[in-house]
Amino acid sequence: MAKPLTIYNSLSRGKEVFEPLIPGKTGLYVCGPTVYSNAHLGHARPAVTFDLLYRYLLHLGYKVRYVRNITDVGHLEDEIEESGEDKIVKKARLEQLEPMEVVQKYLNTFHRNMAQLNTLPPCIEPRASAHIIEQQLLIKRILENGFAYEVNGSVYFDVEKYNTRYRYGILSGRNLEEMVANTRNLEGQEEKKNPFDFALWKKASPGHIMQWPSEWGMGFPGWHLECSAMSMKYLGEVFDIHGGGMDLQFPHHECEIAQSTAASGHSSVRYWMHNNMITINGQKMARSLGNFITLDELFSGNHPLLDSAYSPMTIRFFILQAHYRSTLDFSNEALQSAGKGLERLMKAAALLPKLTASATSTVDIGALEENCREAINDDLNSPILIAHLFDGVRIINQVSEGLASVSAEDLDKLKSIFHTWLFDILGLREENNPAGNSETIRQLVELTLKIRMDAKAKKDWTTSDYIRSELARIGISVKDKKEGCEWEMD
RNA sequence: GGUUCCUUGGCCGAGUGGUUAGGUAGCGGUCUGCAAAACCGCGUACGGCGGUUCGAUUCCGCCAGGAACCUCCA
Length: 490
Hints:
Radius of gyration: 27 Å
Largest sheet: 4 strands, parallel
CATH topology of the largest domain: Rossmann fold
Strand content: 5-15%
CATH architecture of the largest domain: 3-Layer(aba) Sandwich
Mean pLDDT: 90
Low-confidence stretches: 75-83
CATH class of the largest domain: Alpha Beta
CATH superfamily of the largest domain: HUPs
Protein backbone atom coordinates (compact mmCIF):
# COMPACT_ATOMS: atom_id res chain seq x y z
CA MET A 1 0.00 0.00 0.00
CA ALA A 2 1.61 3.20 -1.16
CA LYS A 3 1.80 6.08 1.24
CA PRO A 4 -0.17 9.15 0.20
CA LEU A 5 1.22 12.61 -0.45
CA THR A 6 2.16 14.36 2.75
CA ILE A 7 3.19 17.98 2.91
CA TYR A 8 4.69 20.05 5.68
CA ASN A 9 2.12 22.52 6.91
CA SER A 10 3.73 25.62 8.40
CA LEU A 11 0.57 26.14 10.41
CA SER A 12 0.91 22.88 12.36
CA ARG A 13 4.71 22.65 12.00
CA GLY A 14 4.45 19.08 10.88
CA LYS A 15 3.81 16.86 7.91
CA GLU A 16 0.17 16.19 7.09
CA VAL A 17 -1.50 13.92 4.58
CA PHE A 18 -2.78 16.04 1.73
CA GLU A 19 -6.51 15.75 1.30
CA PRO A 20 -8.16 18.37 -0.85
CA LEU A 21 -11.30 20.13 0.26
CA ILE A 22 -13.14 18.89 -2.82
CA PRO A 23 -12.17 15.41 -4.00
CA GLY A 24 -10.35 15.46 -7.31
CA LYS A 25 -9.91 19.23 -7.35
CA THR A 26 -7.50 21.54 -5.61
CA GLY A 27 -6.54 25.19 -5.42
CA LEU A 28 -3.02 26.53 -5.10
CA TYR A 29 -2.12 30.15 -4.44
CA VAL A 30 1.49 31.29 -4.54
CA CYS A 31 2.87 34.74 -3.78
CA GLY A 32 4.39 36.07 -6.96
CA PRO A 33 6.92 38.80 -7.54
CA THR A 34 6.79 42.53 -7.13
CA VAL A 35 7.73 43.59 -10.62
CA TYR A 36 10.02 46.51 -10.13
CA SER A 37 13.33 44.94 -11.16
CA ASN A 38 14.70 41.81 -12.75
CA ALA A 39 14.06 38.40 -11.25
CA HIS A 40 17.04 36.95 -9.39
CA LEU A 41 18.10 33.50 -8.26
CA GLY A 42 15.98 33.81 -5.14
CA HIS A 43 12.84 34.16 -7.24
CA ALA A 44 13.62 30.90 -8.99
CA ARG A 45 13.26 28.93 -5.76
CA PRO A 46 9.51 29.31 -5.12
CA ALA A 47 8.87 29.21 -8.85
CA VAL A 48 10.56 25.81 -9.21
CA THR A 49 9.32 24.48 -5.86
CA PHE A 50 5.68 25.20 -6.53
CA ASP A 51 6.04 24.20 -10.17
CA LEU A 52 7.12 20.80 -8.86
CA LEU A 53 4.07 20.69 -6.60
CA TYR A 54 1.78 21.81 -9.42
CA ARG A 55 3.21 19.21 -11.80
CA TYR A 56 2.86 16.47 -9.23
CA LEU A 57 -0.71 17.39 -8.35
CA LEU A 58 -1.52 17.27 -12.06
CA HIS A 59 0.23 13.92 -12.31
CA LEU A 60 -1.93 12.63 -9.48
CA GLY A 61 -4.93 13.53 -11.60
CA TYR A 62 -6.19 16.55 -9.71
CA LYS A 63 -7.88 19.37 -11.52
CA VAL A 64 -5.68 22.16 -10.19
CA ARG A 65 -6.31 25.87 -10.24
CA TYR A 66 -2.92 27.46 -9.76
CA VAL A 67 -3.02 31.19 -9.00
CA ARG A 68 0.08 33.33 -8.73
CA ASN A 69 -0.28 37.05 -8.26
CA ILE A 70 1.70 39.88 -9.75
CA THR A 71 2.24 42.75 -7.36
CA ASP A 72 2.18 45.81 -9.56
CA VAL A 73 0.78 48.32 -7.11
CA GLY A 74 3.89 48.34 -5.01
CA HIS A 75 4.13 48.23 -1.31
CA LEU A 76 5.17 51.18 0.75
CA GLU A 77 8.88 51.57 0.51
CA ASP A 78 9.31 53.18 3.87
CA GLU A 79 6.57 54.27 6.16
CA ILE A 80 8.85 56.56 8.06
CA GLU A 81 9.36 58.72 5.01
CA GLU A 82 6.88 61.49 4.76
CA SER A 83 6.15 60.87 1.13
CA GLY A 84 5.49 57.17 1.61
CA GLU A 85 6.45 56.47 -1.95
CA ASP A 86 5.98 52.99 -3.18
CA LYS A 87 8.71 50.98 -4.85
CA ILE A 88 7.30 51.10 -8.32
CA VAL A 89 6.79 54.84 -8.26
CA LYS A 90 10.32 55.38 -7.04
CA LYS A 91 11.77 53.23 -9.77
CA ALA A 92 9.60 54.98 -12.33
CA ARG A 93 10.99 58.40 -11.52
CA LEU A 94 14.47 56.99 -11.62
CA GLU A 95 14.00 55.65 -15.09
CA GLN A 96 11.62 58.31 -16.35
CA LEU A 97 8.98 55.79 -17.19
CA GLU A 98 5.32 55.38 -16.57
CA PRO A 99 4.73 53.10 -13.57
CA MET A 100 2.88 50.62 -15.74
CA GLU A 101 5.73 50.72 -18.23
CA VAL A 102 8.10 49.61 -15.47
CA VAL A 103 5.68 46.89 -14.47
CA GLN A 104 5.35 45.62 -18.03
CA LYS A 105 9.08 45.64 -18.64
CA TYR A 106 9.93 43.52 -15.63
CA LEU A 107 6.84 41.38 -16.00
CA ASN A 108 7.94 40.46 -19.53
CA THR A 109 11.40 39.52 -18.28
CA PHE A 110 9.90 37.53 -15.41
CA HIS A 111 7.70 35.56 -17.79
CA ARG A 112 10.62 34.85 -20.08
CA ASN A 113 12.80 33.70 -17.17
CA MET A 114 10.03 31.46 -15.87
CA ALA A 115 9.63 29.88 -19.30
CA GLN A 116 13.40 29.35 -19.51
CA LEU A 117 13.24 27.51 -16.19
CA ASN A 118 10.49 25.37 -17.73
CA THR A 119 7.93 26.29 -15.10
CA LEU A 120 4.35 25.83 -16.20
CA PRO A 121 2.40 29.08 -16.30
CA PRO A 122 -0.24 29.51 -13.60
CA CYS A 123 -3.91 29.18 -14.52
CA ILE A 124 -4.57 32.72 -13.37
CA GLU A 125 -2.01 35.45 -12.82
CA PRO A 126 -4.01 38.24 -11.21
CA ARG A 127 -2.55 41.71 -10.87
CA ALA A 128 -3.14 43.82 -7.81
CA SER A 129 -3.86 46.93 -9.86
CA ALA A 130 -6.71 45.11 -11.58
CA HIS A 131 -8.36 44.18 -8.29
CA ILE A 132 -8.70 47.51 -6.52
CA ILE A 133 -12.46 47.13 -6.24
CA GLU A 134 -12.20 43.64 -4.78
CA GLN A 135 -9.72 44.95 -2.24
CA GLN A 136 -11.99 47.83 -1.32
CA LEU A 137 -14.92 45.46 -0.85
CA LEU A 138 -12.80 43.32 1.43
CA ILE A 139 -11.87 46.38 3.50
CA LYS A 140 -15.56 47.20 3.85
CA ARG A 141 -16.31 43.70 5.13
CA ILE A 142 -13.50 43.98 7.67
CA LEU A 143 -14.76 47.41 8.75
CA GLU A 144 -18.33 46.11 9.06
CA ASN A 145 -17.11 43.29 11.25
CA GLY A 146 -15.38 45.84 13.46
CA PHE A 147 -11.80 44.78 12.92
CA ALA A 148 -10.58 47.93 11.23
CA TYR A 149 -10.81 51.66 11.76
CA GLU A 150 -10.57 54.70 9.57
CA VAL A 151 -8.27 57.58 10.38
CA ASN A 152 -7.76 60.59 8.20
CA GLY A 153 -8.39 58.85 4.88
CA SER A 154 -6.53 55.65 5.78
CA VAL A 155 -7.94 52.37 7.07
CA TYR A 156 -5.96 50.25 9.51
CA PHE A 157 -6.44 46.72 10.70
CA ASP A 158 -7.13 46.55 14.44
CA VAL A 159 -4.82 43.75 15.50
CA GLU A 160 -5.64 43.99 19.20
CA LYS A 161 -9.37 43.77 18.57
CA TYR A 162 -8.84 40.87 16.22
CA ASN A 163 -6.79 39.10 18.84
CA THR A 164 -9.66 39.20 21.32
CA ARG A 165 -11.77 36.95 19.10
CA TYR A 166 -9.17 35.11 17.02
CA ARG A 167 -5.46 34.68 17.48
CA TYR A 168 -2.96 36.91 15.76
CA GLY A 169 0.31 35.06 15.25
CA ILE A 170 -0.81 31.47 14.72
CA LEU A 171 1.33 31.03 11.63
CA SER A 172 4.56 32.58 12.82
CA GLY A 173 4.26 31.41 16.41
CA ARG A 174 4.08 34.84 17.94
CA ASN A 175 1.76 36.10 20.58
CA LEU A 176 0.55 39.62 20.79
CA GLU A 177 1.61 40.23 24.38
CA GLU A 178 5.21 39.48 23.56
CA MET A 179 5.01 41.59 20.47
CA VAL A 180 3.66 44.51 22.43
CA ALA A 181 6.50 44.16 24.90
CA ASN A 182 9.11 44.07 22.18
CA THR A 183 7.83 46.54 19.63
CA ARG A 184 9.74 49.70 19.33
CA ASN A 185 7.81 52.83 18.55
CA LEU A 186 8.54 54.09 15.10
CA GLU A 187 7.89 57.63 14.16
CA GLY A 188 5.16 58.54 11.73
CA GLN A 189 2.72 56.03 13.12
CA GLU A 190 0.59 58.39 15.16
CA GLU A 191 -2.49 57.43 13.19
CA LYS A 192 -2.39 53.84 14.33
CA LYS A 193 -3.87 52.69 17.60
CA ASN A 194 -1.00 50.24 17.94
CA PRO A 195 2.30 50.07 16.16
CA PHE A 196 1.59 46.56 14.88
CA ASP A 197 -1.67 47.58 13.24
CA PHE A 198 -1.22 47.54 9.49
CA ALA A 199 -2.72 49.53 6.63
CA LEU A 200 -5.59 48.16 4.59
CA TRP A 201 -5.98 51.39 2.68
CA LYS A 202 -3.48 54.19 2.70
CA LYS A 203 -4.24 57.78 1.91
CA ALA A 204 -2.15 58.96 -1.02
CA SER A 205 0.14 61.90 -0.64
CA PRO A 206 -0.29 64.58 -3.32
CA GLY A 207 2.72 63.42 -5.32
CA HIS A 208 1.81 59.78 -5.26
CA ILE A 209 1.30 58.59 -8.82
CA MET A 210 -0.52 55.34 -8.24
CA GLN A 211 -3.78 56.13 -6.50
CA TRP A 212 -7.41 55.28 -6.81
CA PRO A 213 -10.64 56.81 -5.54
CA SER A 214 -12.39 55.20 -2.62
CA GLU A 215 -15.00 56.10 -0.06
CA TRP A 216 -12.10 57.03 2.24
CA GLY A 217 -10.59 59.35 -0.35
CA MET A 218 -7.80 58.96 -2.89
CA GLY A 219 -5.37 56.26 -1.90
CA PHE A 220 -3.99 52.81 -2.53
CA PRO A 221 -4.40 49.38 -0.98
CA GLY A 222 -2.25 48.16 1.88
CA TRP A 223 0.65 45.78 1.62
CA HIS A 224 -1.02 42.52 2.38
CA LEU A 225 -4.51 42.95 1.04
CA GLU A 226 -4.15 41.84 -2.55
CA CYS A 227 -3.41 38.23 -1.70
CA SER A 228 -6.42 37.95 0.59
CA ALA A 229 -8.72 39.58 -1.96
CA MET A 230 -7.47 37.71 -5.01
CA SER A 231 -7.15 34.27 -3.42
CA MET A 232 -10.69 34.66 -2.14
CA LYS A 233 -11.95 35.70 -5.54
CA TYR A 234 -10.38 32.89 -7.53
CA LEU A 235 -10.11 30.04 -5.05
CA GLY A 236 -12.90 30.75 -2.58
CA GLU A 237 -13.07 31.65 1.08
CA VAL A 238 -11.47 28.33 1.92
CA PHE A 239 -8.88 26.73 -0.30
CA ASP A 240 -6.20 24.09 -0.06
CA ILE A 241 -2.64 25.34 -0.46
CA HIS A 242 -0.97 28.70 -0.08
CA GLY A 243 2.73 28.91 -0.85
CA GLY A 244 5.48 31.48 -0.69
CA GLY A 245 8.92 32.22 0.64
CA MET A 246 9.70 31.80 4.32
CA ASP A 247 10.50 35.46 4.55
CA LEU A 248 6.86 36.21 3.85
CA GLN A 249 5.59 34.22 6.80
CA PHE A 250 5.65 37.28 8.99
CA PRO A 251 4.15 39.72 8.63
CA HIS A 252 2.73 39.17 5.15
CA HIS A 253 1.05 35.81 5.55
CA GLU A 254 0.10 36.46 9.15
CA CYS A 255 -1.70 39.60 8.01
CA GLU A 256 -3.34 37.70 5.18
CA ILE A 257 -4.75 35.22 7.66
CA ALA A 258 -5.98 38.02 9.89
CA GLN A 259 -7.63 39.87 7.00
CA SER A 260 -9.36 36.83 5.58
CA THR A 261 -10.49 35.64 8.99
CA ALA A 262 -11.71 39.08 10.00
CA ALA A 263 -13.76 39.30 6.81
CA SER A 264 -15.18 35.79 6.61
CA GLY A 265 -15.09 34.64 10.22
CA HIS A 266 -12.94 31.61 9.51
CA SER A 267 -9.47 30.82 8.31
CA SER A 268 -9.07 30.39 4.59
CA VAL A 269 -5.94 28.36 3.94
CA ARG A 270 -5.73 24.66 4.80
CA TYR A 271 -2.04 24.03 4.05
CA TRP A 272 0.61 26.74 4.27
CA MET A 273 3.86 25.89 2.50
CA HIS A 274 7.05 27.92 2.68
CA ASN A 275 10.21 27.49 0.68
CA ASN A 276 13.53 28.37 2.31
CA MET A 277 16.00 30.94 1.07
CA ILE A 278 18.92 30.72 -1.31
CA THR A 279 22.00 31.98 0.47
CA ILE A 280 25.23 33.40 -0.81
CA ASN A 281 28.19 33.30 1.55
CA GLY A 282 25.77 32.08 4.18
CA GLN A 283 23.51 35.06 3.89
CA LYS A 284 20.11 35.36 2.27
CA MET A 285 20.16 36.54 -1.32
CA ALA A 286 17.91 39.53 -1.48
CA ARG A 287 17.39 42.60 -3.53
CA SER A 288 17.51 44.78 -0.46
CA LEU A 289 20.84 43.29 0.63
CA GLY A 290 22.34 43.93 -2.78
CA ASN A 291 23.89 40.46 -2.93
CA PHE A 292 21.67 39.06 -5.65
CA ILE A 293 22.44 37.66 -9.07
CA THR A 294 19.69 37.98 -11.65
CA LEU A 295 18.58 35.02 -13.69
CA ASP A 296 19.68 36.69 -16.91
CA GLU A 297 23.13 37.17 -15.40
CA LEU A 298 23.28 33.50 -14.43
CA PHE A 299 22.19 32.40 -17.89
CA SER A 300 24.79 34.64 -19.55
CA GLY A 301 27.57 34.36 -16.97
CA ASN A 302 27.77 38.13 -16.96
CA HIS A 303 28.41 38.87 -13.29
CA PRO A 304 31.65 39.32 -11.30
CA LEU A 305 30.77 36.46 -8.95
CA LEU A 306 30.21 33.98 -11.77
CA ASP A 307 32.99 31.80 -13.18
CA SER A 308 30.82 30.82 -16.12
CA ALA A 309 27.29 30.87 -17.47
CA TYR A 310 24.80 28.41 -16.04
CA SER A 311 21.93 27.17 -18.14
CA PRO A 312 18.34 27.44 -16.96
CA MET A 313 18.13 23.67 -16.53
CA THR A 314 21.30 23.70 -14.42
CA ILE A 315 19.65 26.28 -12.17
CA ARG A 316 16.47 24.24 -12.01
CA PHE A 317 18.38 21.05 -11.21
CA PHE A 318 20.50 22.88 -8.63
CA ILE A 319 17.33 23.96 -6.85
CA LEU A 320 15.71 20.52 -7.08
CA GLN A 321 18.80 18.83 -5.65
CA ALA A 322 18.05 20.46 -2.31
CA HIS A 323 14.88 20.00 -0.30
CA TYR A 324 12.69 23.10 -0.58
CA ARG A 325 12.61 23.68 3.19
CA SER A 326 16.39 23.79 3.53
CA THR A 327 18.53 26.76 2.73
CA LEU A 328 20.52 26.29 -0.43
CA ASP A 329 23.95 27.84 -0.67
CA PHE A 330 25.08 29.37 -3.92
CA SER A 331 28.61 28.84 -5.17
CA ASN A 332 30.26 28.32 -8.54
CA GLU A 333 31.49 24.93 -7.41
CA ALA A 334 27.99 23.82 -6.41
CA LEU A 335 26.49 25.06 -9.65
CA GLN A 336 29.17 23.39 -11.73
CA SER A 337 28.71 20.06 -9.99
CA ALA A 338 24.95 20.39 -10.51
CA GLY A 339 25.58 20.98 -14.19
CA LYS A 340 27.75 17.87 -14.42
CA GLY A 341 25.20 15.75 -12.61
CA LEU A 342 22.39 16.98 -14.82
CA GLU A 343 24.45 16.19 -17.90
CA ARG A 344 24.95 12.64 -16.70
CA LEU A 345 21.25 12.28 -16.07
CA MET A 346 20.23 13.66 -19.45
CA LYS A 347 22.80 11.61 -21.34
CA ALA A 348 21.45 8.44 -19.79
CA ALA A 349 17.92 9.52 -20.66
CA ALA A 350 19.02 10.08 -24.26
CA LEU A 351 20.55 6.62 -24.30
CA LEU A 352 17.29 5.00 -23.30
CA PRO A 353 15.73 4.74 -26.79
CA LYS A 354 18.90 3.10 -28.08
CA LEU A 355 18.89 0.25 -25.58
CA THR A 356 17.90 -3.22 -26.69
CA ALA A 357 15.92 -5.61 -24.55
CA SER A 358 17.05 -9.08 -23.54
CA ALA A 359 15.09 -12.14 -22.56
CA THR A 360 15.64 -11.54 -18.87
CA SER A 361 16.59 -8.74 -16.52
CA THR A 362 19.67 -8.78 -14.31
CA VAL A 363 18.56 -5.59 -12.61
CA ASP A 364 15.59 -4.67 -10.46
CA ILE A 365 13.45 -2.01 -12.09
CA GLY A 366 10.39 -2.77 -10.03
CA ALA A 367 11.49 -0.95 -6.93
CA LEU A 368 12.57 2.16 -8.79
CA GLU A 369 9.14 3.53 -9.59
CA GLU A 370 7.92 2.95 -6.06
CA ASN A 371 11.02 4.61 -4.63
CA CYS A 372 10.42 7.71 -6.74
CA ARG A 373 6.81 7.93 -5.65
CA GLU A 374 7.72 7.45 -2.02
CA ALA A 375 10.32 10.21 -2.19
CA ILE A 376 8.03 12.83 -3.65
CA ASN A 377 5.13 11.82 -1.44
CA ASP A 378 7.33 12.63 1.52
CA ASP A 379 6.90 16.39 1.40
CA LEU A 380 8.27 16.72 -2.15
CA ASN A 381 11.67 15.24 -1.38
CA SER A 382 13.19 15.94 -4.78
CA PRO A 383 16.81 15.23 -3.72
CA ILE A 384 15.88 11.66 -2.80
CA LEU A 385 13.87 11.33 -5.99
CA ILE A 386 16.91 12.44 -7.97
CA ALA A 387 19.14 9.99 -6.11
CA HIS A 388 16.80 7.18 -7.22
CA LEU A 389 16.94 8.40 -10.80
CA PHE A 390 20.73 8.14 -10.61
CA ASP A 391 20.22 4.47 -9.73
CA GLY A 392 18.38 4.29 -13.03
CA VAL A 393 21.27 6.06 -14.76
CA ARG A 394 23.69 3.37 -13.62
CA ILE A 395 21.36 0.66 -14.88
CA ILE A 396 20.97 2.38 -18.25
CA ASN A 397 24.73 2.73 -18.66
CA GLN A 398 25.36 -0.84 -17.61
CA VAL A 399 22.86 -2.12 -20.15
CA SER A 400 24.33 0.16 -22.77
CA GLU A 401 27.80 -1.23 -22.08
CA GLY A 402 26.53 -4.80 -22.10
CA LEU A 403 27.26 -5.23 -18.39
CA ALA A 404 23.63 -5.82 -17.52
CA SER A 405 20.44 -6.74 -19.32
CA VAL A 406 16.79 -5.77 -19.13
CA SER A 407 13.70 -7.52 -20.39
CA ALA A 408 11.42 -5.73 -22.84
CA GLU A 409 8.93 -5.21 -20.04
CA ASP A 410 11.54 -3.70 -17.73
CA LEU A 411 12.90 -1.51 -20.50
CA ASP A 412 9.46 -0.08 -21.10
CA LYS A 413 9.13 0.51 -17.40
CA LEU A 414 12.48 2.28 -17.28
CA LYS A 415 11.50 4.51 -20.18
CA SER A 416 8.23 5.33 -18.52
CA ILE A 417 9.96 6.15 -15.22
CA PHE A 418 12.31 8.61 -16.83
CA HIS A 419 9.58 10.14 -18.92
CA THR A 420 7.29 10.59 -15.96
CA TRP A 421 9.66 11.55 -13.17
CA LEU A 422 12.49 13.31 -14.91
CA PHE A 423 10.60 15.19 -17.58
CA ASP A 424 6.97 15.47 -16.46
CA ILE A 425 7.38 15.92 -12.73
CA LEU A 426 10.86 17.34 -12.15
CA GLY A 427 10.28 19.38 -15.28
CA LEU A 428 13.77 18.96 -16.65
CA ARG A 429 14.34 19.01 -20.38
CA GLU A 430 17.07 18.74 -22.97
CA GLU A 431 18.81 21.97 -23.74
CA ASN A 432 19.82 21.58 -27.33
CA ASN A 433 22.24 23.94 -28.85
CA PRO A 434 20.23 25.27 -31.78
CA ALA A 435 23.29 25.03 -34.00
CA GLY A 436 23.54 21.34 -33.18
CA ASN A 437 20.24 20.82 -34.87
CA SER A 438 21.39 22.26 -38.13
CA GLU A 439 21.52 19.60 -40.82
CA THR A 440 24.39 21.37 -42.55
CA ILE A 441 26.51 21.38 -39.41
CA ARG A 442 25.65 17.77 -38.75
CA GLN A 443 26.83 16.76 -42.20
CA LEU A 444 30.02 18.83 -41.88
CA VAL A 445 30.87 17.17 -38.59
CA GLU A 446 30.07 13.71 -39.96
CA LEU A 447 32.33 14.39 -42.93
CA THR A 448 35.15 15.60 -40.73
CA LEU A 449 34.83 12.56 -38.52
CA LYS A 450 34.84 10.27 -41.53
CA ILE A 451 38.22 11.72 -42.51
CA ARG A 452 39.38 11.20 -38.95
CA MET A 453 38.26 7.58 -38.97
CA ASP A 454 40.25 7.02 -42.15
CA ALA A 455 43.30 8.53 -40.46
CA LYS A 456 42.72 6.32 -37.44
CA ALA A 457 42.50 3.26 -39.66
CA LYS A 458 45.96 4.17 -40.98
CA LYS A 459 47.15 4.71 -37.40
CA ASP A 460 47.82 8.32 -38.30
CA TRP A 461 47.37 9.49 -34.71
CA THR A 462 48.71 12.96 -35.43
CA THR A 463 45.91 13.76 -37.87
CA SER A 464 43.27 12.00 -35.83
CA ASP A 465 44.19 13.80 -32.62
CA TYR A 466 44.47 17.12 -34.44
CA ILE A 467 40.93 16.81 -35.75
CA ARG A 468 39.61 15.84 -32.34
CA SER A 469 41.32 18.68 -30.50
CA GLU A 470 40.32 21.26 -33.09
CA LEU A 471 36.71 20.10 -32.95
CA ALA A 472 36.89 20.32 -29.16
CA ARG A 473 38.17 23.86 -29.50
CA ILE A 474 35.01 24.88 -31.36
CA GLY A 475 32.79 23.07 -28.90
CA ILE A 476 32.31 19.64 -30.40
CA SER A 477 33.46 16.77 -28.25
CA VAL A 478 34.27 13.42 -29.82
CA LYS A 479 34.21 10.11 -28.00
CA ASP A 480 35.60 7.01 -29.63
CA LYS A 481 33.59 3.86 -29.18
CA LYS A 482 34.50 0.27 -29.92
CA GLU A 483 33.13 0.81 -33.39
CA GLY A 484 33.08 4.34 -34.72
CA CYS A 485 32.57 7.33 -32.49
CA GLU A 486 30.02 9.66 -30.98
CA TRP A 487 29.99 13.43 -30.97
CA GLU A 488 28.04 16.20 -29.37
CA MET A 489 27.98 19.96 -29.24
CA ASP A 490 28.32 21.82 -25.97
C1' G B 1 16.70 42.10 23.03
C1' G B 2 12.40 38.58 21.39
C1' U B 3 10.71 34.30 18.25
C1' U B 4 12.20 30.27 15.20
C1' C B 5 15.82 27.38 12.91
C1' C B 6 20.54 25.43 11.30
C1' U B 7 25.82 23.23 12.00
C1' U B 8 26.97 16.23 7.87
C1' G B 9 33.24 13.82 4.27
C1' G B 10 37.22 19.11 -0.51
C1' C B 11 32.31 21.30 -2.29
C1' C B 12 26.71 20.91 -2.75
C1' G B 13 23.28 18.13 -0.23
C1' A B 14 19.66 13.75 1.85
C1' G B 15 18.64 10.79 5.94
C1' U B 16 18.43 7.70 10.29
C1' G B 17 18.51 5.48 17.51
C1' G B 18 22.34 0.05 15.47
C1' U B 19 22.52 -1.62 8.23
C1' U B 20 25.36 2.40 1.13
C1' A B 21 22.07 8.50 0.54
C1' G B 22 23.00 10.92 -4.12
C1' G B 23 25.78 14.42 -7.07
C1' U B 24 30.53 16.64 -7.81
C1' A B 25 35.75 16.76 -7.01
C1' G B 26 40.02 13.34 -5.77
C1' C B 27 42.56 8.45 -5.85
C1' G B 28 43.16 3.27 -7.86
C1' G B 29 41.49 -0.18 -11.64
C1' U B 30 38.87 -2.05 -16.41
C1' C B 31 38.36 -0.42 -21.49
C1' U B 32 41.26 2.60 -25.19
C1' G B 33 46.84 3.95 -29.80
C1' C B 34 45.89 8.16 -26.56
C1' A B 35 41.88 11.01 -24.60
C1' A B 36 36.89 11.31 -23.15
C1' A B 37 32.72 8.67 -21.62
C1' A B 38 31.08 4.45 -19.11
C1' C B 39 31.75 0.62 -15.51
C1' C B 40 34.15 -1.39 -10.83
C1' G B 41 36.57 -0.16 -6.18
C1' C B 42 38.19 3.59 -2.29
C1' G B 43 37.70 7.79 1.75
C1' U B 44 35.03 5.06 7.31
C1' A B 45 31.52 12.63 7.50
C1' C B 46 28.03 13.89 11.07
C1' G B 47 30.41 21.69 15.53
C1' G B 48 32.18 21.09 21.11
C1' C B 49 31.07 19.13 26.13
C1' G B 50 27.88 16.33 29.11
C1' G B 51 23.33 13.18 29.77
C1' U B 52 19.55 9.19 28.46
C1' U B 53 20.43 4.29 26.10
C1' C B 54 22.97 -2.21 25.31
C1' G B 55 24.09 1.43 21.37
C1' A B 56 23.42 8.49 19.18
C1' U B 57 25.26 11.78 13.73
C1' U B 58 19.95 10.85 14.95
C1' C B 59 16.70 12.05 21.66
C1' C B 60 17.72 15.76 26.02
C1' G B 61 20.76 19.79 28.26
C1' C B 62 24.64 23.31 28.04
C1' C B 63 28.35 25.89 25.05
C1' A B 64 30.36 27.79 20.36
C1' G B 65 29.37 29.47 15.46
C1' G B 66 25.78 30.84 11.73
C1' A B 67 20.92 32.10 9.64
C1' A B 68 15.71 33.78 9.04
C1' C B 69 11.85 36.81 10.97
C1' C B 70 10.67 41.02 14.39
C1' U B 71 10.93 47.02 8.32
C1' C B 72 10.24 45.92 1.96
C1' C B 73 11.81 40.97 0.61
C1' A B 74 10.93 34.74 -2.96
